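Archive maintenance. Older records in this collection stored only the sequence; we are now back-filling the structure field for every entry so that each record is complete. The fields below show one back-filled record exactly as it appears after the update. Entries are processed alphabetically, and Protoheme IX farnesyltransferase is next in the queue.

ARCHIVE ENTRY
Title: Protoheme IX farnesyltransferase
Organism field: Sulfitobacter geojensis
Length field: 311
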Amino acid sequence: MTDITNTPTAEYETQLGDYFALLKPRVMQLVVFTAVVGMLAAPVSVHPVIGFASILFVAIGAGASGALNMWWDADIDAVMKRTVNRPIPAGKVQPREALALGVALSGMAVMMLALSANLLAAGMLLFTILFYAVFYTMWLKRATPQNIVIGGAAGAFPPVIGWIIATGSFSVEAWLMFALIFIWTPPHFWALALFMRSDYDDAKVPMLTVTHGRPATRRHILGYTVLLAFFAIATGFTAIGGYIYLSFAVVLNVLFLIGAYRIWQRDEEMAEADNYAVERKFFRLSLFYLFLHFGAILIEATLRPYGLGGW
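Back-filled structure field:
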């Protein structure tokens, strides 16, 4: 847990933007997008006002999780290059303010989602916040090299919540969208860890690159990418898939598999010689991977009422 003592100095007045940064807005964008796709891909239509309000509360819940994560992880954020400028280690926001913001927004988001949508959706949102803030952040992240594998589930729940907002129930299609994000998360972050290992070393975070070495990480990236390709393409043959989605999925997963195979073939001498160019390229592709898959699901859902989407 953080014991960081940085607080806003007398010369610095905390800005609204500093509090907003606690909510991890970039992560929130992915949460909102996948939740919207989950809601619109469902076979039940949602009134636009109810849908907008529900997604807003899901976004607030995601932001609350981000604030709680930054509160607890402020000590390791302070020693990692890519996180040192976050509001708490930078001394812009006090830790207790981040904690209060995260708790308050969590309670509001869950209660309001129960009112705007249904109790099951609100319960799933509460579970997601607790899973990310407590199970992952406070325990798994510092306890096991499988932290990102299990913790990735927290980021995979939004499309399930979106589906439940519309239908009030679970389905195979919702869990396939969950699987896309869940299985994508490890190779995405492990590729980053390959060329950012010193950060995790310095912070004493047991990332796979630190505990098992880079050769093992490269094997894991390939293994998870093969599994991901299976689920991604299989989704194309379900009620949320279709020719458009399947075309995207085949092309994207062929490229992803080629990238993972090239990473698996390399050793550290080769990687250092070109400044981890292959690993960086794979990581950049992974940034587009989810957006394009879920974008294709959204296209199918948009065209389906006109008899153009799906099978």
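Update note: The chain has two domains: 7-170, 171-311. Residues 277-303 form the longest helix (27 residues).
Entry marked complete.
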